[in-house]
Design goal:
Length: 364
């Protein structure tokens, strides 16, 4: 659900594959889009349709989600590095304005649902109003420090710095639900698919395809959907040539369209200084965790201490976990040879003959 299917732009299969069982073994360092994770926790970690809160009315869903998911990763041999967003690029201002408008509309719809007593709609519009705040980020940074898990503060978009960490070999893959991880050039993206060994022309075409489909940094050409956008990129190779060859009365190009600036932002994003990044997974501060999570946020002390023991246990040995415990393995985007259909009557024949005599007979 929510996956974007990437069509092939060449006769050869695109260099994007789903994470395989073989590549998902053993300990791996993974850069994770922190804001995306926190947002998911605020949406999913709820009680009676509401975010979790302590006795003081402070939201704690993000802390519970971050604490237990991180422990689960460590137990399975994954070394997470959370990357937090910095300032948004100027090109994103239009998208941020649209988001503010959608939030204002959701607030109106929520008020109407509350007045009508529509529980389902109240929950739906409440979720649409969820926003990751500076306090959420700061509290998660504090929690990660106490857990001994490193984090990185990106100067701009987290996905861009995640991609830079992968390209520099600091981590194995970038984990995000945002397809921008690909357009920022991450060699391996953990969502459901990975993308290895991109050639420059494919990256360029892929970026232009994503701009046509819609990104955070500029508008799209009205009337051009996924299929037509793919066909146009395959036929003309780039947006400049597409504009030259389409009927602009039927497909009006936005006035002052900033597609070139958006493309350049994907090709040369502002990222964290890779040479200054020194990733260390330290021992958890049990006393500090108890003071913060139990003393301040009123979590159950036994659970927090038990979680700390799991972190320590994960550090004692090299757990050979599997990444597909976290990321659904669904196969490859390249064509797969299908098994030939059985001939008529073969199923009945197998049913009659049964297993090969003398092999693996139960009780023998």
């Amino acid at each position: 659900e929510g996956r974007m299917s990437v069509p092939e732009l060449h006769s050869q299969p695109a260099p994007c594959v789903i994470v395989s069982h073989q590549s998902a073994r053993f300990s791996r360092k993974i850069a994770i889009d922190a804001s995306m994770s926190i947002y998911q926790f605020l949406i999913a970690v709820r009680q009676d349709g509401n975010v979790l809160q302590n006795e003081d009315g402070e939201t704690t869903s993000h802390l519970m989600g971050m604490f237990y998911r991180t422990i689960r990763m460590l137990e399975n041999g994954i070394k997470p590095v959370y990357v937090f967003d910095g300032k948004p690029p100027q090109l994103k201002s239009g998208e941020l304005e649209k988001r503010s408008e959608r939030r204002a509309e959701a607030e109106k719809q929520l008020a109407q649902a509350q007045e009508a007593g529509e529980a389902e709609n109240i929950e739906k519009f409440n979720k649409r109003l969820v926003k990751v705040t500076k306090q959420h980020n700061d509290e998660c940074k504090r929690l990660l420090t106490l857990m001994g898990v490193p984090y990185v503060e990106a100067p701009c978009e987290a996905e861009a710095s995640c991609a830079a960490l992968v390209k520099a070999g600091k981590v194995y893959a970038a984990a995000t639900e945002d397809m921008d991880g690909l357009t920022f050039g991450s060699p391996i993206l953990m969502r459901h698919l990975t993308a290895n060994n991109f050639c420059h022309s494919f990256i360029f075409q892929f970026i232009d395809l994503c701009i046509l489909l819609g990104c955070d940094y500029c508008e799209t050409i009205r009337g051009i959907g996924p299929k037509r956008a793919t066909d146009l990129v395959k036929q003309h190779g780039c947006i400049e040539e597409i504009i030259e060859n389409i009927d602009t009365t039927k497909y009006p190009v936005p006035e002052g369209w900033l597609y070139k600036e958006a493309r350049q932002l994907f090709l040369s994003p502002e990222v964290v200084d890779i040479d200054s990044v020194d990733l260390k997974w330290n021992e958890p501060d049990e006393a500090g965790l108890v003071e913060f999570m139990c003393g301040e946020k009123q979590f159950n002390e036994d659970r927090i201490r038990n979680g700390t023991k799991k972190i320590n246990k994960s550090r004692q040995g090299s757990t050979q976990g599997r990444l597909d415990n976290f990321f659904k393995v669904t196969g490859s985007l390249s064509s797969v040879k299908r098994k030939e259909p059985e001939t008529k009557g073969s199923a009945k024949k197998k049913q009659k003959t049964g297993a090969t005599p003398g092999k693996f007979k139960k009780g023998k």
